[in-house]
Amino acid sequence: MEWKRYVKRVLWALAAVAAGVVFARFVDEGYSTANYPLFTVSPRDFDITVHTVGTLDAAEAHMISSTIKGDKGKIVYLVEDGAPVRTGDVLVRLDSSPFEAEVASLTKDVLIISAAVDVARQMLAWEKHQVERAVRNAAYNLKVAELEYEKLVKGDGPLQETVFQEEKEKAAEAWERYDRFIRGLEKLNVAGYEASGELDAARRTAAELLEQRTAAEKKYDHYVDHVLPLKIEKSRAAVENAEMELEQTRKSGVYQIAKAQAALKETIGKQDIAEAALAQARTALEKTVLKAPIPGIAILYETFRDGLKRKPRVGDRVWQNQPLLYLPDVSSMIVKTRIREVDLHRIALGQHCGIRVDAYPQARFNGQIVFVGVLASERSEGYGGEKYFQLTVSIAGEDQRLRPGMTSRVSILTDHAADALCVPIEAVYEENGRPHCYRYANPHFEKVPVTVGRQDEAWVEILSGLRSGERVSVLKPRGEAIE
């Protein structure tokens, strides 16, 4: 990566500068040998600063992506990368033709189903009307049957029975009258009064009256014992049949109405589904136009597409929630960088930093550490397995010159060494993890174990092992030069 190569060049440049300073000091102070430059151990002040290089980014950004399901979206317009936009400006336009066709088709379906709903409502109203009429007719028939029954039991039946009773009684009375008349004639005939002609006529009339009496009695008995009970039973059966007819009509009506209601409900359900699908299609059609929710700078999002890492372009198919571009909020900027594992103990949240950007080398910005990563990562470019932690620095204030992607250099002052006994960092060596220096003891060098303290890119604090005024070699002496 470009910034990693840049770090390499910076580190080499710093080393060259430090070596130049050291060698210049040697010349100034006059300490040198034929083969090894010497440095006089002496107290000095120096700042302990951690330097790192990162990239500017917005603290907050709105990611713009398609919310249309699947991969139906196809880019037909795309805002220019890095273009400033205002709220409501069109950022991405997707091909709307398939969504317009779907909206038209679903609109037709909704109209058809809406007509079916109207028909189902009319059928329900018609069924209710038919049921109400049938129930009224059945109830009327029941009322008529009940009235007929009551009329027969309390009116016509007893009345007819009374008529037959009177006929029977009249016939009996007439027969009894002639029967007495005959007995009277018989007495007269016995007493010597000749009345045989009248007696025969009376007897014939009495016989007729007896037959009438017997017929009236049979008629009365037949009516009371057979005809009237049969009529009452038929009338009662008619009432029961009318009651059953009314109940069946009601039950049948409930079923017919429920059936019509179910058909209406089913059709309304289909209408709801069709309207929901139409609403979704219209929403998808609206989603074919992606607008800026805030003002900012449109940055096209680079990711892997068709096996290549690139930014989106016109003609690309896009998936749902696939990032297309983002709008950084440039009013609040951060620097995303990394810190070496060996420098992690010097870093703390809230620590203040100095920031410079390559685009404006004369400008200096103030920052503060707001995030330190918890997981280490290794660099893969031949750095010997050195590990790094993510670091985020927020930049104080707002500056319209700052843009995402700018190279930024962060300087973190972690400590200050005052009047500390120091040697150049090149003069300290390690063997089995133990630091040592090569002290000059004319004409040889002595390998002296030292205890080191604070250090920066150029100086190392010596806590023990050397004294002020002693001289050390900046280069490692060869074996014959060591005593």
Q: Could you explain how this protein is built, in words?
A:
This protein has 483 residues and is of the alpha+beta class. The chain has 3 domains: 2-60 and 329-481, Elongation Factor Tu (Ef-tu), domain 3; 62-94 and 288-328, RNA polymerase II/Efflux pump adaptor protein, barrel-sandwich hybrid domain (OB fold (Dihydrolipoamide Acetyltransferase, E2P), Beta Barrel), CATH 2.40.50.100; 101-284, Helix Hairpins (Orthogonal Bundle), CATH 1.10.287. Helix content is 44%, strand content 31%. It is built from 3 helices and 24 strands. The chain has helices at 2-29, 97-190, 196-286; strands at residues 38-40, 42-58, 61-65, 73-78, 84-85, 90-94, 289-291, 296-297, 299-300, 303-305, 308-310, 317-318, 323-328, 333-340, 352-357, 360-378, 387-395, 407-424, 429-431, 434-441, 444-449, 451-455, 459-464, 471-473. A 6-stranded antiparallel beta barrel has the order 2-14-17-16-15-18. The radius of gyration is 60 Å and the shape is rod-shaped. 20% of the residues are buried. Mean pLDDT is 85; it is low at 1-32.
